[in-house]
Design brief:
The complex is a heterodimer of chains A (261) and B (640).
Chain A: E1 6-15, E2 18-28, E3 33-37, H1 44-52, E4 59-64, E5 67-68, H2 74-79, E6 82-85, H3 97-108, H4 124-134, H5 149-161, E7 167-171, H6 179-196, E8 199-203, H7 207-213, E9 216-221, E10 224-229, H8 231-235, H9 238-260
Helix pairs in contact in A: 3-4, 3-5, 4-5, 5-6
Chain B: H1 3-34, H2 41-63, H3 65-95, H4 100-122, E1 138-141, E2 144-147, H5 148-170, H6 172-182, H7 184-189, H8 194-216, H9 226-241, H10 246-266, H11 274-285, H12 313-332, H13 335-360, H14 369-384, H15 390-412, H16 417-437, H17 439-442, E3 448-449, H18 460-483, H19 485-495, H20 497-502, H21 507-533, E4 535-536, H22 543-556, H23 563-578, H24 585-599, H25 603-612, H26 620-634
Antiparallel strand pairs in B: 1-2, 3-4
Classes of the chains: A alpha/beta (261), B mainly alpha (640).
């Protein structure tokens, strides 16, 4: 197969004395869904934000299709073809749904500074087409800030898809959603990216979602790589089982103690 | 020069540093806990001085000089503390969750009310207090005589710093204050009664400001300008120190006071500007002050922001009708009426340009008058010193204002929220001080006179149409820009910096250009204004003018495009009608601000919009969105 879309080498980040991400390396192949999983505090989001440009790594290198993008600001990384969704959905709340997507088109075609055309009329058809694909066309004229959270997540996906990215970065795409919605959103995402050949890097807490859709998994714990590989290989890894069992074991103990008190 | 002289100068610097610290320290504590920048802190200081005047006059004859005086000082401070508590209970409680613009304006409303109150109670004259018993003489230091009382003041700063350290580190209450400064939501979640904590903090802050004012009485007579004179410097000190940081305030007070003490020797003209220059420099290097911490807000929208809609048929007719009426107006209006109307155009443009960066861009400028004044002064300078005519001046002066906005804008867009407001205020003060102190160029306090239109436009009616044309064109241009991608880009950045960055928007650059564009248009307003009045003075770029512009926007409604136009017109017409009738204009204005902020945060146009143009997304949806917006506002950008 061709060269990987995303190549991360020796990524490292410390906050004060805490090493959040410790020399993590991985590759995302073209057209694949790659999941980073791990318990709370494993360094998933930190890792993610270094790839997306929100955080500057202390060491290591991030390459997009062979081009070094380490330390570039998010807006530059986006221009190189990387779409992004956030753990807490970030949209333009006082715009309509379709205007949110139109903004991405306006930016992509470099018309942000135009003073005369009416923004509402620009790239409307294109934006509607993307909304159609994520199932939000019927709500196109509603104010984005008034939508249900699951719908806001779909709008975010539409925004991220607007400039036909080669890579999507999705930080906990289903966080804060009801279980049924989670499955639906992830299935939709998987469908879209497979039909368009987009690669996806995502983090996720919901194991159902991860094992249903990811082609490759990276397991982090306290900033270190515990395992990488196919879902099956990772599921059978004793180290992974220990971490996850340990985690839920602690939670169970906590619940038991609270119940007694 | 004599090193002994320098030492004396250094000591004077220390004394004024103490004074500055006492004020700034309360300001910074209040901000740390309540997140409100208290404009009224200067008023607390002034009230401290006046109350100390009255109390010493009452107590010293009864209790003897020594006991009377030294009892009056803390009593005055405590009385101010209680007034601060009153403000917390009646006003601040209602606006803790409001946008910072509303908070700043509301406390400025209190400033206006207190100013008229003080003049009514104590009169407009300076009131000289008694000298401090026990410290009336001089000590001789290296052959120089140095007032003993100054030594008391020098000691007061470190003593208060020590007392606050003990209070914050050795008492439960102090621990809570420190905790709330770091994360007030967490403190609330832990079951601490926030309301009582905030009230206590206001008492402490008010007490300290009152103490500063009372202690100043033997040095400086109580006078009605103490509040405004001190508040700008107190802002500078808190911002340089890092807002919410007491030790930072102490350091910043030392730096500013020493620079002032020595700056006056080297370059006396620069004294007014110096603190603001230092602040601007510090904020560029350390955007959150020397010891401050970054803010984590990512959204600067206003509750009730809604998508821009194209004009409906009714609205188009309304606008066409208004334009027709304005064209016909000179047929019915006399000289005075036309002058009033053209001033309305000027203020409408001023407010509209302010709302271009504020409503669409979420950038709350407390110094928009600077660009209005730069336009006015630019025109006046061209006519007065270079002998150009009105035509050239009207073209060049807005560019002059635009250049100023381009220069200052480069610095201010690096900041957001309260820090943005403070830095715009600081730059406006720099411009004001320059106009005020550079007498040879600007005529200083008197300004410049005789700036009249060219002959062909000197007829009032002709100038009326010229103003309508120029201001109307500028408004139309900004209106278009608001609906164009540029305006949408600003709105995008206002709603979510995170998302804007993630779709390739270089937000700072666009905000910078918008700031310059708005400044240019304010400059248009200023230059049209100067030819209608025939003169200009520093008042046109002072803080009250900036606040007037904010009130116009607020009155009309931030969330609508028409709001600032309506607000500018209503405000100016009311001002023209009411100002000559009353001695209490400021108090009235202050009260009006409070009513607006608390009861009508949507303004006139916002109110009408919600009444006349209901759509499917109103009602419960709207409230829910506002609540969600407030919740997201506090949420950090930091990764988990």
């Amino acid at each position: 197969m061709s060269e990987p879309v995303l190549q991360v080498e020796g990524l490292r980040k410390a906050f004060g004395g805490v090493i959040a991400v410790d020399t993590v390396s991985f590759e995302v192949a073209a057209g694949r869904l790659f999941a980073i999983i791990g318990p709370n505090g494993a360094g998933k989001s930190t890792c993610f934000n270094m790839v997306g440009g929100q955080l500057l790594p202390d060491a290591g290198r991030v390459q997009l299709a062979g081009q070094d993008i380490t330390g570039l600001p998010p807006r530059r990384i986006w221009r190189l073809g990387v779409g992004r969704t956030f753990q807490v959905a970030a949209t333009f709340t006082a715009m309509t749904v379709v205007e949110n997507v139109q903004m991405a088109f306006i930016s992509h075609r470099r018309r942000l500074r135009a003073l005369l055309p009416t923004a509402r009329k620009l790239y409307r058809a294109e934006a509607m087409a993307v909304l159609e694909r994520v199932g939000m066309a019927d709500q196109a004229e509603r104010q984005c800030g008034l939508l249900a959270y699951g719908d806001i997540k779909r709008v975010e996906l539409a925004i991220a898809l607007a400039h036909e990215p080669r890579l999507l970065l999705m930080d906990e795409p289903t966080a804060g959603m009801a279980p049924k919605e989670r499955i639906a959103l992830m299935a939709l995402t998987a469908d879209i990216v497979r039909e368009r050949g987009i690669s996806v890097l995502f983090t996720e807490h919901d194991m159902d979602v991860v094992f249903a859709h990811a082609d490759t998994l990276l397991v982090l714990d306290r900033g270190r790589t515990v395992a990488t590989g196919t879902p099956d290989a990772v599921r059978d890894n004793p180290e992974v089982q220990r971490i996850y069992l340990g985690g839920s074991g602690v939670e169970a103990a906590q619940r038991a103690m609270e119940a007694r008190a | 020069m004599d090193p002994a002289f320098f030492f004396i100068q250094f000591l004077s610097g220390l004394a004024s540093a103490s004074n500055l610290f006492l004020i700034a320290c309360g300001l910074t504590i209040i901000f740390g806990v309540t997140r409100i920048v208290n404009f009224a802190h200067g008023s607390f200081y002034m009230l401290g001085a006046y109350l100390a005047y009255t109390l010493t006059a009452q107590l010293m004859p009864i209790l003897g000089d020594v006991v009377g005086f030294w009892l009056a000082i803390p009593l005055a401070a405590a009385a101010v503390g209680l007034l601060a508590v009153l403000m917390e209970l009646l006003l601040l409680r209602r606006i803790y969750h409001s946008h910072e613009l509303f908070q700043l304006l509301a406390t400025f409303g209190v400033v206006l009310i207190v100013q008229d109150l003080v003049q009514t109670v104590w009169g407009p004259e300076e009131l000289f207090g008694p000298r401090a018993p026990g410290f009336t003489s001089f000590v001789v230091i290296f052959g120089f005589r140095f007032p003993e009382y100054q030594l008391v003041l020098i000691a007061a700063g470190p003593l208060v710093l020590g007392a606050i350290w003990l209070l914050f580190n050795r008492t439960r209450w102090g621990n809570l204050v420190r905790a709330a400064t770091q994360d007030r939501e967490m403190v609330g979640a832990l079951g601490v009664n926030q309301a009582r904590l905030f009230t206590g903090v206001l008492f402490l802050g008010g007490f300290l400001a009152g103490l500063a004012g009372a202690l100043q009485l033997p040095v400086e007579p109580a006078n009605p300008f103490m509040d405004v004179n001190i508040i700008a410097e107190a802002f500078v000190v808190t911002v340089i120190g890092g807002m919410g940081n007491v030790l930072g305030a102490f350091l910043a007070a030392l730096i500013i006071a020493q620079l002032q003490a020595f700056g006056i020797l080297v370059f006396p003209q620069i004294t007014l500007v110096l603190p603001f220059l230092v602040m601007a420099l510090v904020l560029v290097v350390r955007p959150w002050g020397l010891l401050g911490k970054p803010e984590t807000t990512t959204s600067h929208g206003f509750a009730g922001d809604r998508p821009l809609r194209p004009l409906g048929r009714t609205q188009q007719l309304l606008i066409a009708g208004t334009v027709a009426i304005l064209l016909l107006l000179p047929l019915v209006l006399g000289e005075y009426g036309q002058k009033l109307a053209l001033e309305v155009f000027v203020y409408a443009l001023l407010a509209f340009s302010l709302n271009f960066i504020m409503g669409a861009g979420g950038m709350v400028s407390f110094g928009h008058a600077a660009y209005f004044g730069l336009g006015g002064y630019g025109a006046a300078l061209l006519v007065h010193h270079l002998g150009f005519g009105m035509e050239i001046a009207l073209l060049a002066a807005p560019l002059f204002a635009g250049l100023g906005a381009l220069l200052f804008g480069w610095f201010v867009v690096r900041l957001s929220g309260v820090y943005f407001a403070m830095l715009t205020l600081a730059f406006a003060q720099i411009v004001w001080s320059t106009a005020f102190q550079w007498v040879e160029l600007t005529g200083g306090d008197n300004g410049m006179i005789g700036i009249w239109p060219s002959d062909w436009a000197s007829d009032r009616t002709v100038y009326y149409y010229l103003s309508l044309l120029v201001c109307g064109a500028a408004i139309a241009f900004l209106w278009r820009a608001s609906h164009a991608p540029f305006g949408y880009t600003l709105r995008a950045g206002r709603d979510s910096t995170l998302r804007a960055d993630a779709i390739g928007i270089d937000l700072k650059r666009h905000q910078w250009l918008a700031f310059a564009l708005a400044g240019t248009c304010a400059g248009v307003a200023g230059s049209v204004f100067v030819f209608s009045k025939g003169n200009i003075d520093p008042g046109s770029l002072a803080i009250p003018t900036s606040v007037d512009a904010l009130v116009m926007v607020l009155l009309g409604g931030i969330q609508t495009l028409t709001g600032p136009l309506v607000g500018g017109a209503v405000f100016h017409l009311l001002e023209a009608q009411i100002l000559p009738l009353t001695d209490y204009w400021r108090a009235l204005l202050g009260a009006a601000i409070l009513v607006l902020v608390i009861a009508f945060p949507m303004g006139i146009a916002g109110f009408l919009r919600d009444k006349l143009l209901p759509d499917d997304d109103r009602g419960d949806d709207q409230r829910e969105a506002a609540a969600r917006g407030a919740a997201e506002k506090g949420r950090a950008e930091a990764p988990t």
